[in-house]
Amino acid sequence: MKEAFKKYLIDRGYKYVTPSGNPSTVDDYCNRVDRITAEENLTWQELAERIDDILPYYDKGGRKQYIGEKSHRSFINALKRFSEFVKSL
């Protein structure tokens, strides 16, 4: 599922590497989804099945908003892109 998410992001114009060759948004979002799955003790597939329930925890007003807002809201943004990906399947 992770590889399909990477392809989904790349197909939508997200960069895999920076001009200097460093990992970029695609890698970052995958790493953040990895950290959310660890936080929730879920696999990527389980997260996909429960994304509508879990995403609000990390958004504004959610009980884990403090995580969602880390790194300029990269965690919640990654989860939102993952949610869009799941809905596109």
3D structure, described in words:
Helix content is 72%, strand content 0%. By secondary structure, it is an all-alpha fold. The longest helix is centred in the last third of the chain and has 19 residues, at 70-88. The chain starts with a helix and ends with a helix.
Largest sheet: none
What is the helix fraction of residues, given as a range? over 70%
Any low-confidence stretches, pLDDT <50, length ≥5?
A: none
Class from helix and strand fractions: mainly alpha
Number of helices: 5
Mean pLDDT: 95
Strand percent estimate? under 5%
What general outline do the C-alpha atoms trace?
A: globular
Q: Total number of β-strand segments?
A: 0
Q: Round the Cα radius of gyration to an integer and report it.
A: 13 Å
Order of helices and strands: HHHHH
| N-to-C CA distance | 11 Å
